[in-house]
Automatic annotation (TrEMBL), chains A, B:
It holds the Pfam family RecR_ZnF. It comes from the Bacteria. GO terms for molecular function: DNA binding; zinc ion binding. May play a role in DNA repair. It seems to be involved in an RecBC-independent recombinational process of DNA repair. It may act with RecF and RecO. Belongs to the RecR family. HAMAP family: RecR. This is Recombination protein RecR.
Length: 206, 206
């Protein structure tokens, strides 16, 4: 793409550094901002730099939080013996949305991925193991996505916990509620049969 | 969406004001920035505010340009008697890419669209008519998209030019090079037959 303006080219370049935003989309977004009042561009860039400069992670669970201890960790009603291990804040938000979970979280900040150069030491794993060593956690629930990276990460943490007195579990994989069996993939259907639950439980959950 | 941080919520909100960016995508983009070095966020927001604050439009064609007169208008090799009327800079870039056009452009900045509240006076039409009145332009090529808004805008400008000594044309609509006739829509195919060109011309164009 040949630009008639360096300023424009620079803005499009920086915008296209975002994941999933190509040069064309970046140009469309930047031209949109040019048509809007100047305030909108200022609000956007201030919101981004403010977040980047002042972002704080909960000192206990590593979730993004404006306070030293996040609302969930600070809530006396949450069950502090139960910790759900997730990849990032999106997973926390998704699980919170269900209103089915009343324990705490531990945000790893990613998954072990040799392909992307992310090793165990780039993740928030040591503090998790230390928390377990302190002895107040009864159960860890692994809720990483069931990809190779997720399984590797689960397994790595599982090995680190060897000899420690903690129950580990993973969230159930199975057919989505409302899905037709015939369209489900075999691995999921297979797991949902292997890990079948007592019928009474399925009634309670709703 | 319930956010654990006001800073995060604010950044996601501002990002989701961009066209085609929903809350989920905005969150993904913002979390990506958080994982990158701080410099990337600063570069992005500076590029956007710099462009918004310092953007300049060519005083002749209204294209985005860092100089008072854009490179195309300032180029002595371009044919100044030929002006192509386009909607925005993307159209200029697309036509420049073909290397088939050696005239100037006139960027309207949009199309007449009552639905979006854009009237003729929100567009850069008066300067175009004035340029034509000065008498140095021999031909205006309308290259707006062939939508209702594009046709309305073409027609509005055409009416403004009544009585002035200028040839007007529109870019040819027809079957794309390489396309199969059977898949073409009827309007396009119909126009491509009505506006057929001498066979020799089609050889010259390649």
């Amino acid at each position: 793409m040949e630009f008639s303006s360096k300023l424009l080219e620079n803005a499009v370049y920086e915008m296209s550094q975002l994941p999933g935003i190509g040069k064309r989309t970046a140009l469309r977004l930047v031209l949109h901002l040019l048509k809007q009042p100047e305030a909108q561009t200022r609000l956007l860039s201030e919101a981004l730099t403010n977040l980047r400069d002042e972002v704080n992670f909960c000192k206990s669970c590593n979730n993004i939080s404006d306070t030293e201890l996040c609302e969930i960790c600070a809530n006396p009603k949450r069950d502090k013996t139960l910790v759900c291990v997730v990849e990032d804040i999106r997973d926390v938000m998704a699980i919170e949305n269900t209103s089915q979970y009343h324990g705490l979280y531990h945000v790893l900040g990613g998954k072990i991925s040799p392909m992307e150069g992310i090793g165990p030491h780039d993740l928030n794993i040591v503090p998790l193991v230390n928390k377990v060593k302190e002895g107040s956690i009864k159960e860890l629930i692994f809720a990483l996505s069931s990809t190779m990276e997720g399984d590797t990460t689960n397994f790595y943490i599982f090995k680190q916990l060897e000899g420690l007195d903690v129950v580990t579990s993973t969230i159930a994989r199975g057919i989505s509620v409302g899905d037709e069996l015939e369209y489900a993939d075999e691995v999921t259907l297979g797991r949902s049969i292997l890990n079948r639950v007592p019928f009474e439980n399925s009634i309670k959950a709703d």
